[in-house]
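It would be a great kindness if you could assist me with a short task in structural biology. The matter concerns a single protein, recorded as an amino acid sequence and a row of backbone structure tokens. Could you please explain, in whatever detail you think fit, how the structure tokens follow from the sequence? Thank you for your consideration; the sequence and its tokens are set out here:
___
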Amino acid sequence: MTQEYFTTEERKLVPQLVKELNDRLGNQLTCKDINTVHSLIERGITEAGIFKRDRYGLNPVVRHLRTALTLCDSIAPDRTMVIATMIYNLCRGDYLDTDRIKSLFDENIARVVHGLLHVAPLYKKQAAVENENFHKLLLTFAEDVRVILIMTVDRLALMRAINHHPNEKFVHDIASESRYLYAPLAHKLGLYAIKTELEDTSLKYLDRKTFSQIAERLNETKQARDLYVQEFIKPIDEQLKHEGLKFELKGRTKSINSIWQKMKKQGVDLEGIYDLFAIRIILDVPLKDEKRACWLAYSIVTDIYRANTSRFKDWITIPKSNGYESLHITVYGPGDKWVEVQIRTRRMDETAERGVAAHWRYKGIKSEGDVDKWMNEVRKMLEASGQEGQMNLMRDMDTNLYNNEVFVFTPKGDLFRLPQGATLLDFAYHIHSRVGSTCMGGKVDGKNQKINYRLRSGDTVEIITSSTQYPRLDWLNIAVTSRARNKIKNAINERRRGQAQLARETLQRRFKNRKIESDDALLARVIKKMGYKTTIEFYAAIQEGEIDVNTVVEQYEGIVAKQNEGTAARGTAEEFVLQQPTDHKEKYNDDILVIGEGVKGVNYKLSKCCNPIFGDRVEGFIASDGAIKIHRTDCKNLHHLKERYPYRIIRTRWTGKAGSQFVVTLHVLGKDDLGIVSSITSLINKTDNCLLRSISIQAEGGLFEGYISVNISHIDMLDDLTKKILNVKGVKQVSRL
């Protein structure tokens, strides 16, 4: 390789690392593999100028060699992971792509390289520490379990490489991320040694003085501690054997980081830590004898040493919700020292170590059921006795556990989880209700986006707000999360309530100016007549200018006037009934009811079943409440009424001139041609004294069917409009409902 690229120390180190790597992999690496990787890196350095030192001066070749070597030592010697680790950084520009990797090596290596490239941008996000969502984001981005393993081990290699690095901020940032993001991830994967080293090394870089003090103190006391453990377990060992139990006794010293955490939590120095080291008794007994054996061991230990009952934990009688089972006791040992003893069977120990992630959740790291199951499978593979085939099994494992979620960053590095399909508006409401309600849009990875932008995992999102913005009904078509939708509805309702109050005050002032005493019951009839279901909608329409206040007052006065005329009208209707002949064979009376513009004193209503208009042939029917219902003579309902109540039918005619507007609905059938609907609506809008109220069109199989409601004043105008619509090209039939 290029000599100028390496320092003198690195030139000596690289051949040594390569030799160790070859020794670990044995016959997994062929001569062709070695030569191909060497050639790719050489050309990447000399020709493409890609494989450069990073901005902190670290040599990627040396770093990747160390990562590959640690992978072999910590997980398994695996050709796919080693080659992918060495070459994935070369996939920049046109120099190397995954298709070429597949042709040079195989599909497995190309897949892992693609996964590493996929998660690489996360390094640049600088995610906020202590964030469980970061782990989920990794699982979303990673395409192969080995991608996450390589990332975790690579972080360990980086931590080892930056000891005494001159850039203190760089070291601090890497150590913080390692402590709060990568160490828990290693714990989930069952990589306990890596997890412990990451935590201890992070403590060393973040607080070197504390780390050194604890490390020196532990070294000073190691020999004495080992002797103490032997002294402590000797009588226990003898008594357990005397009882005929099969068992294993373990003694372990806590990690430096764990000791430091306990010192801070308990507010004591090193000598004050009860469980500086712990003794574990693991019993080999059949399932049916487990509880009896554990309690027998407990009895033996507490007979030898006095127990601290306040620190006793019984997770055998009632196991933890995650399945963890064990007896924990703290006893007063030789030399007036407190010692923690854990008693469990081999099955319980395996469950705690490799079961449903019990151990790392016991340490306070949260997780979810699916991740527990997935991680447990990884742990089992890593801890299997034989390493051959482990990586092939991992290749087939699905890491996309969160395909129903997206994970996005804030500019400060905070990480949030939302459901798949969530929009920028959902994210705004996820941050805060006020942010959502004033959201105008946002910037995603520096680019302006609208509120309906669909978020993708890894996006960095900045919300843009405005004090003049407020939620609208169409936002409900954009938001997908229940939180955002509920907040939008609440904000809209709150705003409408405020508008309603202002409109109510405006209407009452207008009543007062006209010296009108308002009645809530009559006003409710006005609201219903104008087509509003609730008073809130009615008043909001006034405030937004959809209804003129003067129109409301006029409608109210009209209802009052009709109410005052009601008595006389009812009398008129009663006279018609009293005058009917007793012989029901006579279908009609000789009186004629006159209706139309300007007619007063008659309580009549135009029937909604046939919607008669000025000029239609009509007849009246005296209803049970005394009102006269006006029907078109061709109305089916009128036909039935004539048969049952012929004595209630009144001959009726229009008088005066057309003035009022009547609602008519037309049924239109035709060919589904481009622009036909536009032609019909344009024709209606151009017709004098004709107003389009609504239109509903459905098209299927080359035909369309539509219902058009218009305001019109006379039957002759309706006939003329019908003819015009029939003349539109493509219209086949027009009929009145």
Summary: The first strand starts at residue 247 and ends at 253. The two ends are 89 Å apart (CA to CA). The mean pLDDT is 79.
